[in-house]
């Protein structure tokens, strides 16, 4: 952004589609009318992650006519800490030299050797940033302290691969909250369901609708009146969770859900337990449920994947809500006979 207040797309390597370019300009706070500065935002679009770091320029002889700039990094993996650290180094290089060429040297070094070192701008080592660490960086305890027993609604929605939309006016609050949710279904270790920064833009909404289950974050309260986009709506600002009528039946809560809810709350409220221990507790309960489900399956017709034996499920005489949950879970795990 220059001293005239214009936001300009200056440089790009290797190349980018027009569609992605307009998306990134939308995500970058320098093009936003409200003048709020977001130092770091991230999200994904069609399986590509974007990480954007923005800095204000102060006393940089190399960038006399620039007031702010953003560096956007595209990557295939989810790792906010890794790319925040790396883009910070790139920002320092750009502040000093005012030229993308110097940044490129560091970028290529990280791409080829996984490391870039410099005395004044700091060092970066790719292998310091393990994916598992990124998965565990959020706080499950914070979510439970905000939603209590209702956390089980989020757990159920994720287990059944439903569509969760999260609204909050502050993008930072959304990113912190949504990035943690996939940890509730730790056995899948699947962060590709996370779309932490979505605009109500036609292309983005269409791309989202093409996904089966997801967690999508919005800063636009208009999303509330888009029931076509969610099965579960979380108003993070007001701490409210709403279940859409479309999934009321699949998401019927019963004794099992109460059990899971209590387990989540008791584990999260234990001051001696870390976030990763809470995730482990929930994961053990999930394993138990999946083992129960596995015991009700059979392999038939030379099909490698076991499918649910509905008779075996009925014979167990589970409470209706439990039977219902196991049936829908089998559907989510593609264990139903077509």
Automatic annotation (TrEMBL):
Its main location: other. GO terms for biological process: protein transport; regulation of early endosome to late endosome transport. PROSITE patterns: DENN. It holds the Pfam family SPA. One of its GO terms (molecular function) is small GTPase binding. It is found in: Late endosome. Residues 1-338 form the UDENN domain. GO terms for cellular component: late endosome. Keywords: Endosome, Guanine-nucleotide releasing factor. Coiled coil: none annotated. PANTHER family: DENN DOMAIN-CONTAINING PROTEIN 10-RELATED (PTHR28544:SF1), PROTEIN FAM45A-RELATED (PTHR28544). Belongs to the DENND10 family. This is DENN domain containing 10. It comes from Bubo bubo (Eurasian eagle-owl).
């Amino acid at each position: 952004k220059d001293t005239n207040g214009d936001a300009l797309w200056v440089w790009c390597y290797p190349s980018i589609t027009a569609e992605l370019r307009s998306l990134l300009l939308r995500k970058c706070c320098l093009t936003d009318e409200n003048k709020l500065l977001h130092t770091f935002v991230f999200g994904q679009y069609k399986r590509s992650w974007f990480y954007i770091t923005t800095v204000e320029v102060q006393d940089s002889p190399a960038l006399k006519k620039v007031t702010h700039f953003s560096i956007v990094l595209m990557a295939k993996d989810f790792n906010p800490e890794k790319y925040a650290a790396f883009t910070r180094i790139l920002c320092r290089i750009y502040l000093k030299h005012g030229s993308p060429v110097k940044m490129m040297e560091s970028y290529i070094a990280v791409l080829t050797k996984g490391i870039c070192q410099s005395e004044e701008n700091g060092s970066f080592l790719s292998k310091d940033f393990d994916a598992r660490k990124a998965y565990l960086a959020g706080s499950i305890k914070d979510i439970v302290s905000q939603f209590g027993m209702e956390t089980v609604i989020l757990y159920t929605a994720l287990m059944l691969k439903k569509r969760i939309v999260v609204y909050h006016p502050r993008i930072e609050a959304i990113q912190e909250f949504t990035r943690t949710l996939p940890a509730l279904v730790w056995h899948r270790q699947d962060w590709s369901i996370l779309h932490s920064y979505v605009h109500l833009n036609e292309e983005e909404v269409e791309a989202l609708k093409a996904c089966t289950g997801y967690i999508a974050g919005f800063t636009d309260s208009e999303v509330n009146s888009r029931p076509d986009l969610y099965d579960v709506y979380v108003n993070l600002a007001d701490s409210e969770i709403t279940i859409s009528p479309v999934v009321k039946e699949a998401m019927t809560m019963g004794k099992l859900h109460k059990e899971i809810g209590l387990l989540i709350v008791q584990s999260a409220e234990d001051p001696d337990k870390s976030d990763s221990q809470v995730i482990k507790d929930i994961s053990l309960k999930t394993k138990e449920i999946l083992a129960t489900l596995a015991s009700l399956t059979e392999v038939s017709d030379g099909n490698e994947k076991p499918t649910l034996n509905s008779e075996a499920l009925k014979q167990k005489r589970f409470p209706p809500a439990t039977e219902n949950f196991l049936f829908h879970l089998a559907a989510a795990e593609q264990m139903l006979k077509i």
